[in-house]
Amino acid sequence: MKHASTLLFGEDVTAWSYHKMIAHIAKTIDTYSKVVEEIAPNKEKLVANLCTESTGNGKRWTLKQAADALRVFSNEQTEMNFLECARMMNQVEAKLFWGTLLGVRKPITKETFLLNILKDVEKEELKKLNYVGNSFSLNSVLTDLLHTGNSLGSNHHIVYRPRPLKSWDDSVVLTQYNGAMVQLIEGKGRRRVEKTSECVVEYEDEIVTDVFYLEDVELNLQERLEKFMQSNRNIPVCLPQSIPSWAVVEDWAEKNTVRFPDVGVYKPNEMGGYLLVLNHLLRSVRVCSYESNGGEAIIEMEILDGTDFLLCGKMTLRSSNNLGLLYTSLERSGEKVNPINNHKHLVSDDVCLVMDLVSPTFDTNKNEFIHPTFMAFNLEKGIQDITQLVDLVV
């Protein structure tokens, strides 16, 4: 069964990316990667082209030989190139071999495979055991069943990966989702998972963001992290906290990671929470007036409602750098800057200076952004780039 799970589902195989395979082929046949990409622009066409190199009857591999060859080739434990490997297979074997190596989606999942060979097992039972999709070791589960007969469930069979995180937008009400809790994680690191005999630990670089205790599955996020801290005092842990303010959160998100976690019990096959991705909340508005007052300027801004401009609130710029950008951008847009303080200056109707800002929410009652944060004046944009009201209220 070990060899079947390797060939069918890629267990014990280090999957190759499309670009890695392209580079390998280009190096083998001494050509440019771009040439190979033009012939095989996606994984499916790449597999089809690789199969054409297997024109004979192959070596008539046994299941073990085929699985061993796939493991060795994928982990680069051989000097054999793709041509030498292809000529050892027929086209049926090649399609399975290259498809598995490149991680081409299989027609069925491990979960479906189990349901079909274990007729007395219900889907809900597999879900309770977290045997969902391909997130467990099929070989381990079947080996246990062969030796123990009725031992289907074990946390040790689950293949743990970083749980998916979605980009947050204001359709998700955080007070309802997680009690308005946030993790402010220093830096923008690589997410990874480490499994010990006692728990599964989620990291953002070297900072622990979540823990799952295999024998204590009812703990919430706060309880899990506090338990981990008691026995791992030298490892940095990011505890959830109440959202301090949107200004703080957005300022932090520019160079660091803002995560709105699921604070309930750990569910290996479900979302881990949401991320604040500033670029996904970027809005473009037109500067319609400004009022200078010493070291700051109050800007009025507009969005579009169809073809008509609509006021959408004010923003205060206090940084001397940002004030300089405002005046310089106005002049480059064709607007004559008026230096008089404490006086509201309307920008000419034929001037469209676009300002990019970030705002998590838009108040549809007042038609204004809540907690807008200045990002940049964008001279490359025009009226066609201004945010439409309909995009904010849908």
Protein architecture, described:
The protein is α+β, with helices and mostly antiparallel strands. It folds into 4 domains: 2-101, no CATH class; 110-157, no CATH class; 165-276, no CATH class; 279-393, Beta Barrel (OB fold (Dihydrolipoamide Acetyltransferase, E2P)). Helices cover 33% and strands 22% of the residues. It is built from 15 helices and 16 strands. The protein has helices at residues 2-9, 18-29, 33-39, 43-51, 63-74, 82-86, 91-101, 110-117, 123-128, 138-148, 174-177, 221-231, 246-253, 320-332, 389-393; strands at 165-167, 181-185, 191-195, 199-204, 207-213, 241-242, 257-261, 273-275, 282-293, 296-305, 308-317, 344-346, 354-358, 361-363, 368-370, 373-378. Strands 9, 10, 11, 12, 13 and 16 form a 6-stranded antiparallel sheet that branches. Strands 1-8-7-2-6 form a 5-stranded mixed sheet. A hairpin with a 3-residue loop joins strand 3 and strand 4. Helix 1 packs across helix 5 (63-74) and helix 4 (43-51) runs antiparallel to helix 7. It is globular, with a radius of gyration of 28 Å. The mean pLDDT is 84.
Short structural summary:
This protein is of the alpha+beta class and 394 residues long. It has helices at residues 2-9, 18-29, 33-39, 43-51, 63-74, 82-86, 91-101, 110-117, 123-128, 138-148, 174-177, 221-231, 246-253, 320-332, 389-393, and strands spanning 165-167, 181-185, 191-195, 199-204, 207-213, 241-242, 257-261, 273-275, 282-293, 296-305, 308-317, 344-346, 354-358, 361-363, 368-370, 373-378. The protein contains 15 helices and 16 strands.
